[in-house]
Amino acid sequence: MQNNKSKQNQAKNEILTDWQRIEMVIQQSKLTVNAFARHIGLPRGENLYQIKKGNNGISLDVAKRIVSKFPQVDKLWLLTGDGQMLRDDAPAGPWSHTGTSNSEAFRAWAAVHLLPVFIEKGSPAPATAALDQVDELLEQLAKKGGRQ
Questions:
Q1: What is the pLDDT of residues 29-48, one digit of tens each?
Q2: CA angle (32, 15, 13) in 5-degree steps
Q3: Residue 31 near residue 70, CB atoms below 8 Å
Q4: Contact 81/21 with Cβ under 8 angstroms?
């Protein structure tokens, strides 16, 4: 019985927090928190800051607002952390209305998959560290592609 609880706790620790999931979408949108809040129809960023502080979770209303502006974001992932950030059936040209390219959408997807590593390491800014790591890997791939 103890082993099952340990495994459940480990699984819970690997799930991103509500704020980390929202932060990934905000970073991908290239908006400030306040601009993002206005973009999704919130009068100001206070609702999001309350989530960041851990005082509130992601409400269904906030999730609906985010997904209505960013339809490529999976609502289940946003609310629970289960699954992938981007929907498999996402429309072509994700983030196109914010000027973000497909490579930027891939960057966010890859960072989401690296994020648990940086959380486990206790990184003070795991989302930023994950994005930096993805940028470094993409740069290395670009260099290798240029030599072939």
A1: 888 899 999 999 998 889 99
A2: 120
A3: no
A4: yes
59: three-class secondary structure by DSSP: coil
CA–CA gap between residue 12 and residue 17 (Å, rounded) = 10
Instruction: Among 59-63, 69-73, 140-144, name the one with the lowest average pLDDT.
Output: 140-144
Angle at 122 between CA 119 and CA 123, to 5 degrees: 80
Coil/strand/helix, residue 44: coil
75 CB-near residues (< 8 Å, 6+ apart): 63, 64, 67
Separation between Cα atoms, residue 57 and residue 17, nearest integer Å:
9
Contact (CB, 8 A) for 84 and 112:
yes
The amino acid sitting at 60 is: L
Q: How many CB atoms lie within 10 A of CB 59?
A: 13
